[in-house]
Amino acid sequence: MSPKKLNLKDKYKLLTRDLDWEFSYEDRKEAFPYEEFEGIKITDWDKWEDPFRLTMESYWKYQAEKEKKLYAIYDAFAQNNGQTNVTDARYVNAIKLFLTGVSPGEHAAHLGFAFTGRQMGGIGARVAAQMQSIDELRHIQTQIHAMSHYNKFFDGFDEFNHMHDRLWYLSVPKSFFEDARTAGPFEFMIAIGFSFEYVLTNLLFVPFMSGAAYNGDMATVTFGFSAQSDEARHMTLGLEIIKFLLEQHEDNLPIVQKWLDKWLWRGYRLLTLVAMMMDYMLPQKVMSWQEAWELYFEDAAGALFKDLERYGIKMPDYTDTIKQEKEHLSHQAWWIFYQYTHAAAFHTWTPTAEEMDWLSEKYPDTFDKYYRPRWELAAEMEAKGERFYTTGLPQLCQTCQIPMAFTEMSDPTQVSYRESIYNDERFHFCSDPCKSIFDNEPEKYVNAWLPVHQILQGNCGGGGLDKVMEYYHLDDGVANLEFEGSPDAERWKEWKGVA
Amino acid sequence: MSRVQIAFQDNDESRYIVAAIEQDNTTAVVHYEPAMIRVENEGSLIINRDTVSEQIGMEWDVQSLHINLITLTGHIDEDDDYFKIMWNN
Amino acid sequence: MTIRALRDDYHGEFKDSLEKFGGAQLVYLGWDKHQMFCSSRAFPLPPEMRFQELLDNVMPEAFGQHPEFTQIDWNKAQWILDNSAFQPDHSKSLTELDIGHKSLLRLVTPELTGYKGAGI
């Protein structure tokens, strides 16, 4: 008789849990030196339950299959000149922002999960974090491969790695991940594993990728959904870590709640980029940022928080602000990039008449009142041959590093200003949550590398804007400025036979 | 009760998985969106190996779900013959 | 606690302290309810700069693109310095007026309501 096949639970036990060993002659504390300083108390790592009972062996098998499918599509996309089949060349700017702003975050997450995959004391959590670390590396690789095809035909892709450490707006995602990676392993898990992966990445990968498909970009939708299939596993890891920490010890609750309050806000601010990508950068729209927010945050995260109530976890108290901001966020963000596009590695444009009508329909309470006039002003100036590029450098929020462009929800025409004084120095914030994140750990955020201040200190090439552009590796008149009249736009017209 | 949801890439394999879901979860609502299929249900949703195998016409391994999965919400219960997501509220 | 770090004696580096700006101090300038400019701006200015020089030389660079800029009556302009009402003596310097490093100075012009009266 042949031996009986192992069932899923036994297989998982043998090929995951049984890989651990007892520390007989070394001090366990020295093996896991980061496990205690955050104040988290773990009494029994064996209580860790991995919901997806995936072993390393099955992991490789399924990941290999996903990769084969993905690269077959890349080949087909390239062989069929897929770049000419997107709805409009403007669309490609969303993908430039993705490669420069999002993909390096995958790499940062890879490093972060490698760290937690080493430093957490429980084998179940370590194996899951290591798988996620490998996933994140796969994500940046597949994204670079997908975009390398666009890089042959459009400007703004080629220096993404160099730009990531330098460009003013890219300090927003960069500092977000550095904040998480310089925390301890448990805060990192709540920051990226739970808050970002579970609560927020759906907003990035699902509606936006669906939008990529709608705009004829098969390469992007495929890497997006392929990455998101890993994300489903990451989400369950995020949910497990929070349940596990809360069940281990009651003292963990206030620490975890504080991390949640911080990281849901940090992640939400980061998604500002996605809001404008959805509402302004997709020529063919799938759903508005507001609709996506309602479906993937209010609905899905609402159910999640209801489940976490039993542990004493509460929705952060700024949730009402977020609810109001969903009608403003994308418009305020695109306005920033529209006027600073001379220092950006992608093009911007005024929305067309039809696009403005779509925005009015999707945002009936805010667009016509607050934002349509901005675009009318921009169009007026453009018609006079004075396309609006603003002068000077923006004031930035010390925490999220976004220009101070967000407004009071009680008066949407008034910029929201907050400040703190620490060690006799003044610090500025865009919002109450960004201020309280700073106030909780000022010694961390005084360190922030704020691009505007670095430029003014002479650390970015020195001198004027031309030197800064050199430092950025940004050629003036190529990847930056208005879309109309750009080399991208001209090439597109040539391909399409339009005069 | 809160809604759970699961989404798949819109392709030939997922079509049968979704058919099996509809068969075993009579209240499930299916949304066809660009390149993806999203299924919602109140409280919980189950995918049974045997139903999918029958639909697809060959033996289907529950873990091969990972290949076409895009996202899901809820707690997970996974075994050899089923995959279930649910909220406890 | 000012940070949760591995070492209790950890301190962050103040990246933007005054001495890092080569003798200048940073001043942020904003124009309330004029959102043509997406945000307030950062300017490195000499601490001995007179307020009148700020009006004459810096304000046009900061806000001169706005169609209402030429209509500003500087004698009627209101100011908010670091969230408090402020009445500057135009002949005094930034230091004398307590406009410090990283101070936020907001211009308020209630009679000018922005492009199309929409606060833009």
UniProtKB/TrEMBL annotation, chain A:
InterPro entries linked to this entry: Ferritin-like_SF, Phenol_Hydrox, RNR-like, YHS_dom
One Gene Ontology molecular-function label: monooxygenase activity
Domain YHS intervals: 411-449
Keywords: Monooxygenase, Oxidoreductase
Alphabetical list of CDD domains matching this protein: AAMH_A (cd01057)
Domain of life, source organism: Bacteria
Membrane found in the keyword field: no
Transmembrane segments: none
Pfam families assigned to the protein according to its UniProt record, in alphabetical order: Phenol_Hydrox, YHS
Statement: the UniProt record of this protein carries the keyword Nucleus: no
Stated name of the protein: Methane/phenol/toluene hydroxylase:YHS
Organism (species): gamma proteobacterium HTCC2207
UniProtKB/TrEMBL annotation, chain B:
Keywords: Monooxygenase, Oxidoreductase
Family according to the record: Belongs to the TmoD/XamoD family.
Protein name: Monooxygenase component MmoB/DmpM
Top-level taxon of the source organism: Bacteria
UniProt GO molecular function: monooxygenase activity
Automatic annotation (TrEMBL), chain C:
Name of the protein described by the UniProt record: Phenol hydroxylase conserved region
Single Gene Ontology MF annotation: phenol 2-monooxygenase activity
Organism name: gamma proteobacterium HTCC2207
Lineage: Bacteria, Pseudomonadati, Pseudomonadota, Gammaproteobacteria, Cellvibrionales
Listed Pfam families: Phenol_monoox
Gene3D superfamilies for this protein: Phenol hydroxylase
